[in-house]
Amino acid sequence: MVSSSHEAMHRIFQEDPGVFARTFRALDLPFPDPVAVSLMPTDLTETRPTERRVDTLLKIDTASGESHLLIVEAQGKKDPGKPASWAYYVAHLYAKYGIPPVLLVTCQDRATAAWAAKPFAIGPAQWPALTLRALVLGPHNVPTITDPSAAARDIPLATLSAVTHGKEPNAPAILKALATALKTVDEETARIFAELTELGLGTCPAAETWRQLMSVDLSFFRSETSQRLRAEGRAEGRAEDILLILTTRGIEVPEHVRERIAECTDLDTLRSWLTNALTAETAEDLFTEGPA
Length: 292
Description:
With 292 residues, the protein is α/β, with parallel strands linked by helices.
């Protein structure tokens, strides 16, 4: 059975595929940043009854015009049968798409990460037909992000840090930094990465720490202050849209009109002015009731 922790360990890359390149750049592996990403089918089943499915499969396109497939597998423990499955995934996908594949394995403990990182030789010892090498992310090489400002600059990487270090002594400090950083993003983004963190931590003790942090910190998103700030943000955006429309249509906007638009916080009023801006002949026509 696939655990929630297993799901989170690879879904982070679906939310932000660029975290792959950013993480390995710190390890002196110069993978270029993606300019386009395609979520590929994860089902590798053939006509035979055996079902083979990867955790996450992405097609990464780069500015240089080169592409590669990113196979993301979450591994919770050593599994002697897994290298054969991984070798099948790599060979099958290369044969199917003709695009170089990269196998990325994410782990939450150092022993599993060390096992997954070693080369797996397939074939006779004197002449292996295939040697499988995975890139591995785990507590041994994922950055430890305990600074809230650093976490806010890269929420996906901070989430990966929290999940991969969930069984480490420094987990509480990482989780506190991430919880603080989530207050700086919109509610939907915060919800997604908060859930991924909780799923990724699974049943380890740090999961309870995270639930306690969320019960306090993310109550911010349900508070009157949060709702007021979001409303102000929407009003500001709508005011900017009104001014942009008038400017684009070549209508002069006096300073007193700019101030009235900027100071208005009522969304219904701003919506009316936005409609009027499409047909107004002068800036003052915005404030006319009904069609300008």
